Amino acid sequence: MLGPPGAGKGTQARRLAESRGVPHISTGEILREAVQANTDLGRKAKTVIESGQLVSDEIMIGIVSDRLGKNDARDGFLLDGFPRTVFQANALDGMLKDRQPLVVIDLSVDDDELVNRLSTRRICESCGTVTGSLNGQPAVICDECGDGLKQRSDDREGVVRERLVVYRQSTEPLIGFYQNRPTFRSIDGSQDEESVAALICAAVDGATA
Ligand code: AMP
Predict the structure, then answer these.
(1) What secondary structure does DSSP assign to 147-205, as a single string?
(2) What is the mean pLDDT of the segment spanning 180-192?
(3) What are the pLDDT digits (tens) for 1-13?
(4) pLDDT at position 163, please?
(5) Between helices 40-50 and 57-68, what is the axis angle to 10°?
(6) Model pLDDT, residue 175
């Protein structure tokens, strides 16, 4: 699933993976868990994430290649946040040589709406649920588990702007990389969560029919 930060990739990817019975592989979540656990990877990734930049292709390709080799990903998987560069996309094609088709869903949302969503987005550290704003104000308590919500360190305003610049430079070119494939679909991600979920479902079914 492709799209700029704040387009709803995580929320939609979690829903779709659950409904299709495949693992949801979020490279951002893998990195945040490593930061939390203070592993070697986590220490390397922390400063990069907090500056809004990308972790190196080499590290990310290694992480995804290991993860796709696990048993639960044998019959399919949903990638959220990978690939993020054309180099990563080429590496993914190499990993999937015998495992096509790769369905690519691009979620598009305009910049003002992205900045608005990211500045009020909060995440539950206990269960990972992501919550948007309530009447323009950030939510405080997680609806799913009742624990407190926090702002992601890279959702602060200066970092958000940098992440959007990095997205335009490094990740948006992936649309050109994939758009001529018969399994590429672009979806308007600015609608409400349910409508976008229904569009994605139909797009995946259409792309794999
Ligand atoms: P996300 O949760 O997908 O927004 O990712 C959070 C941050 O993790 C990004 O801003 C990057 O710093 C890093 N990251 C996640 N996935 C990748 C990737 N495929 N390549 C490089 N950096 C990544």
Answers:
(1) PBEE--GGGSHHHHHHHHHHIIIIITHHHHHHTTSTTEEEEETTS-HHHHHHHHHHHHH
(2) 96
(3) 999 999 999 999 9
(4) 95
(5) 130
(6) 98
Question: Candidates 1, 9, 31: which one to mutate for ligand 1, based on the most atoms within 8 Å of Cβ?
Answer: 31
For the residues of 89-120, what is the DSSP string, one character each? HHHHHHHTTTS----EEEEE--HHHHHHHHHH
- Among the options 15, 122, 152, 185, which is catalytic? 152
Tell which one of 1, 32, 54 to mutate to probe ligand 1, the residue whose CB is within 8 A of the most ligand atoms.
54
Residue 39 near residue 93 (C-beta atoms within 8 A): no
Catalytic residue among 32, 121, 122, 185: 121
Pick the atom of ligand 1 nearest to 154's CA.
10
pLDDT in tens, 115-134: 989 989 999 988 888 888 77
